[in-house]
Amino acid sequence: MTNLILAWAITAAQVMLGLAMGCAAYRIFLGPRAQDRVLGLDTLYSNAMLLLLVFGIQTGRTIYFEASLIIALLGFVGTVALAKFLMRGEVIE
Question: Which domains are assigned to the chain?
């Protein structure tokens, strides 16, 4: 019974994260301002990282955890670079 509940919870989490990624992609493509697009991108990489973590929990493989760590690090750097570009107009001073 416990394994069945866990399997349903993992499947539900994957479906909800997929829907959240779809909403973030909608914000990226149809955002009225650049700040909305950056926020959508930030949300998209966070949801992708969480989806990989859920896949890692489901399969028991550690490669998903390492990939989600790389996505988190690169996403943070990308968000900081885009925010700096939007504030000052240049990334490297």
Answer: 2-88 (1.10.287)
Give per-residue burial for 15-44: e unless 16+ CB within 10 Å, then b.
eebeebbeebeebbeeeeeeeebbbbbbbb
Residue 85: pLDDT band by 50, 70, 90 thresholds? confident
CB burial of residue 93 (10 Å; 0-12, 13-18, 19+): exposed
Evaluate the CA torsion angle 75, 76, 77, 82 in order and state its sign: positive
| More confident site: 25 or 91 | 25
Q: What is the mean pLDDT of residues 7-28?
A: 96
- DSSP code for 62: S
